[in-house]
Amino acid sequence: MRASLATIALSAVALLLPVGGSAREIPENIKQLKAAIIAKGDCQKKLASGFRVTEGNPTTGAYCGDMLDKYGIIYQQMPSGQLSDMDVDCDGQQANRTGDDGSCGLSTDTQPQTSFRSNVRANGAAAAIGVQDLNPFIHSYVVFGNTNEGKPSWPSFDPQDRGRRKLLGGKRVEPLSVMAVVCGDNLFYGLWGDENGPDGRYPMIGEAGIGLARACFGGATTIDGGHGWSNTDVLYLAFTGSDAVPDASRQPRWDATNFADFERSLAPVGDALVSRVEKSAAGRPACPPSFLRLPGIIHSTLVAALPLAAQPTSYRAMRQRPSR
């Protein structure tokens, strides 16, 4: 479901409400990663671009591969240091779904199945208890990737990299793999469970199942099928590789009857994935410790040759101190 004027109005209200679900603090390495992405302003390796976050704003963003080679991560970013928003998805299981309070009735673009319904049905643990598709109220999932069937002029992005373009250098994001979502001051995990289709007037990004959206931004009083989160401050991290898919020993709680229990069951895989990112993701120290220990005039001469922003703080302060 795409953002509306009501969505924008509710964004500020939701900031005052407690976050629900199974929120966890953002690890320091992911805080630094987010800060580094914002500080760069825009991604350098755009895997696909031309996507909006709201229909009324012509500014477009991209799927970014800046962290692909080093960490196996793909993320979304809008220009000028903005990230993505979180519209509400109500696709998937429709009938007799646990947790359904009727609020998805306000959605105007609900589909009766997710992109990976067949993958859910092929999952032995899910099939064993009769789960046929994702339940947007219970199953924490992210909408990631864009298809353009019927609208070939629209940009598209396939995180599985199944086409001839081979954008990901042989890497791929697997269906039902675990993703990390940084929203507000919290980190949640969700499955890659759906894709953005070519409905609507423009190609869009930034969307998650209603359960995840409510956990991030205030619950049923502010988030429903017609109202999401319009601020572009949400970071979605998709991880390449088969290790991002829960194996037989780390299956999600497909029998969960609430969002928090299901989301928590993704943590064993999610925690391992976010540990891929080094704490230095925000950038290397301006000068390595061994360099700072150089003696006397050699140290001063070498430091002075560095750009001002790269010089140690104490040295910059000394140079910029007004003379008496």
From TrEMBL:
Carries keyword Cytoplasm? no
Signal peptide feature range: 1-23
Q: Which family does the record claim for this protein?
A: Belongs to the glycosyl hydrolase 75 family.
Q: What is this protein's function?
A: Chitosanase catalyzing the endo-type cleavage of chitosan, the deacylated form of chitin. Chitosanase may be crucial in the degradation of the deacetylated portion of chitin in the fungal cell wall.
Per UniProt, which keywords does this protein have? Answer: Carbohydrate metabolism, Glycosidase, Hydrolase, Polysaccharide degradation, Secreted, Signal
EC assignment: the record states: 3.2.1.132
Compartments where found: Secreted
Keyword Signal in the entry? The reply is yes
Protein's UniProt name: Endo-chitosanase
One Gene Ontology cellular component annotation? extracellular region
Which terms in the Gene Ontology molecular function aspect does this entry carry? chitosanase activity
What is the organism of origin for this protein?
Gaeumannomyces tritici (strain R3-111a-1) (Wheat and barley take-all root rot fungus)
